Amino acid sequence: MKKLLMILMALTVACAARGAVDKNFHIFICIGQSNMEGNARVEDQDREGISPNYLMMAPVDFPGMNRTKGNWYPAVPPLCRENTGLTPADYFGRTLLENLPEGHRVGIINVSVAGCKIDAFMKDRAEEYGKTGADWLQNIMQIYGGNPYNYVVDLARKAQKDGVISGILLHQGESDPDDETWPSKVKSIYEDFLKDLNLKAEECPLLAGEVVNSDRGGVCGPMNRIINMIPDVIPTGHVVSSSGCKENFDRLHFSAAGYRQLGRNYAMVMLPLMGYEARQTGGAIDGGLESPIIHSMPRFPGMGGRRPEGAPARPMTPNVTFNISAPRAKEVFFTSQFTQGRLPMTRNSKGIWSITVQPEKADIYPYNFIVDGVSVADPANMNIFPNENFKQSLVEIPDSEALYTVNDVPHGRVSYCTYKSSVLDLNRPLLVYTPAGYETSGKKYPVFYLVSGTTDTEETWFKVGKLNVILDNLIAQGKAEPMIVVMPYGNMMNGTPRPNTMASVSMYKVFNEELTTCIMPYVESNFRTVNDRDHRAIAGFSRGGGQSLFAALSNLDKFAYLASYSAYLIPEALDTCFPQYAANPALLNDGLKLFWFGVGTSDGLYPDVIRHQEYNDAKGIKYEKVFTEGAHTWMNARNYLSITLQRFFK
Questions:
Q1: Which one from 34, 336, 354, 554 is the annotated catalytic residue?
Q2: Which of 124, 178, 184, 250 is catalytic?
Q3: Domain 317-396 adopts which CATH fold?
Q4: Phi/psi at 153 (nearest 5 deg)?
Q5: H/E segment holding residue 7
Q6: Above 80 in pLDDT, residue 299?
Q7: Residue ranges matching CATH 3.40.50.1820 in the chain
């Protein structure tokens, strides 16, 4: 009798022990490929401030961390294997505990396989799939006994003795692009978990995370369309947005910041499913919209880029992602001066439209979006192209060797000025660049008048042409003389006739009067200038080039340097307004120290520029010319500016 009583007491204790499951210990199974393994380096902040109520079950032995497979430990990363990195699970658990009531705990079981297809977690296919993979994939599969599904089920059954399996977190899909059967495969895995672990779907939802999003230039971003089908095939399946989660340079994996945000996103989806309010604690649900995003590549020895055959190796130009939030738009296109035509953009689950492209070469390019037929600048980009008509933004593709790149050199100053125009009876804007040291030198400087093109403003040579940056660099390199540069607004408010007509002459005459009677006196009264022809230059782009040609030819007593960027005067205008030079070309040949033309061979104005040059040839007028590839673009205009700045005042 006494022996029987002791046996009953032992059974009672054993049953009590087996029944001591903490319902407030929420355990989550985490499966997937490398992004769930964790691909980013663990930083100091990721090891700090971890709640003692956040635990991880070691899926394998971690010898260097004294962790043994199947036991619970504080959830200090790494959570998958000893050589893995930061994972979304890290900040998923942290965020849950920041929102859950006191007394709750969270546990993670992370069994993930880098580079695997979804088949690696299908219990009836895993072993066969593992045998056909690359050696490195087979090695990881063997860590989990050749069948990761069975492996995680064994761990989960052990964990169920301590707490409750409250959800399954999946992050996979990069290895299954365009696989329309992926959702059904995930469904079969989920149903197997429910059956083999005796779980109820409504108490154990499945959360599938999006891969690196299109709005971050994700290489596999189109897979998110398929991932977003999960709720259609699994009633208790939910998709976790990766929109705004920052990417690693390969655009397949997330950065550490991206993993932190994605983990919070998982938690924000899970909390309401657990019956708790999802308060924002560690960060926003989605990262902020960024555009453009320049995806810099790490530089490796011998790494080449796009270049003509035989040309020196240069770094590859980066991919660039452009985004615009337009949830109600039906279609959005991207246009730019480094792409051809209108390119369709892709909409993500948050209503953000994206495209990732690679410019052929580094430069500063205009671009814009067309939203349901309306052209708009990029709302997320503060670098706007100043213009009267079109609305475009600017993207600067970095190039350390480019003159438009800001370097650690002395910098000049650009001043916004206003002068009174007696010609137009208006207060007019004017930008003036003064070189580094102007304020303290006491010196007088030569002056370069630089005129904007049709529909451009007085700011365009500053913000698009990068006059100040280019000249800062050239002066620092000893290739250009320190000078004052005056950037007037070329619109004379009387229309802009076609430059291949005689009607343009009237507009040129108004500009010439404005320049000589209003702009130049203002500049010479307010800045320290050398006021003779040998210390004055004038140039312009497009309309500004025509205005510059007319003004210089009208005032050889005032200008010794003249450059035309993609511009010309027609022979009829030259014969009518400047017959003296045709009769005596020495007046120009001796009067101008530099007479220069630059134009792109694809420029619509190229034939007329050639006509002007042929006129000069026929009359014996000397000049210099540079032909480049490309059209009527500011990329060419910056190039011509860089060349001629090195010729002025020498």
A1: 34
A2: 250
A3: Immunoglobulin-like (2.60.40)
A4: -65, -40
A5: helix 2-18
A6: no
A7: 413-645
Could you tell me how far CA 242 lies from the centroid of its own chain? 17
Q: CA 31 to CA 42: how far, in whole Å?
A: 19
pLDDT recorded at residue 311: 44
Confidence check: pLDDT of 305 > 50: no
Q: Environment class of residue 638 by beta-carbon count within 10 Å: exposed (0-12), middle (13-18) or buried (19+)?
A: buried
pLDDT band at 7 (very low <50, low <70, confident <90, very high): very low
Task: Answer yes or no: 253 catalytic.
Answer: yes
What is the 3-state secondary structure of 266-312? HHHHHHHHCCCCCCCCCCCCCCCCCCCEEECCCCCCCCCCCCCCCCC
131-157 residue pLDDT tens = 888 899 999 999 999 999 999 999 999
Tokens 């200038």 appear where?
Answer: 529
Task: State the pLDDT at residue 195.
Answer: 98
The single residue listed with the structure tokens 């064994």 is: 154
Q: How far is CA 367 from CA 216, 285, 336, 381, 568, in A?
A: 18, 30, 4, 11, 27
- For residue 333, the tally of other CB atoms under 10 A from its CB is 18
Q: What is the DSSP letter of 499?
A: T
So what's the pLDDT on residue 461?
98
- For residue 101, whether the previous peptide bond is cis, meaning omega lies within 30 degrees of 0, is no
Catalytic, 612? Answer no
Any idea what the Cα angle at residue 364 is, between residues 362 and 370, rounded to 5°? Answer: 115
Q: How far apart are CA 583 and CA 280, in angstroms?
A: 80
pLDDT band at 298 (very low <50, low <70, confident <90, very high): low
Amino acid in the structure at residue 73: Y
3-class DSSP state of 343: strand
At 108, is the secondary structure helix, strand, or coil?
strand
Long-range CB contacts (< 8 A, 24+ apart) of 285-288?
A: 285/241, 286/241, 286/243, 286/244, 286/245, 286/261, 286/350, 287/243, 287/244, 287/245, 287/246, 287/258, 287/261, 288/244
Predicted local distance difference test score (pLDDT) of residue 455: 93
* CATH class label, 413-645: alpha beta
In whole angstroms, what is the distance from residue 583 CA to residue 67 CA?
95
Q: Tell me the pLDDT tens digit for each residue of 168-200.
A: 999 999 999 999 999 999 999 999 999 999 999
pLDDT in tens, 508-557: 999 999 999 999 999 999 999 999 999 999 999 999 999 999 999 999 99
Q: Which CATH number fits domain 19-273: 3.40.50.1110, 3.40.50.720, 1.20.1300.10, 3.10.20.580?
A: 3.40.50.1110
CATH 3.40.50.1110 range(s) for the chain read: 19-273
Could you list the beta-strand ranges (E) of 84-181: 105-112, 164-171
Q: Which of 26, 53, 68, 11 is nearest to 159 (CA)?
A: 26
HSE (side-chain half, CA atoms, 13 Å) at 612: 27
SS3 at position 106: strand
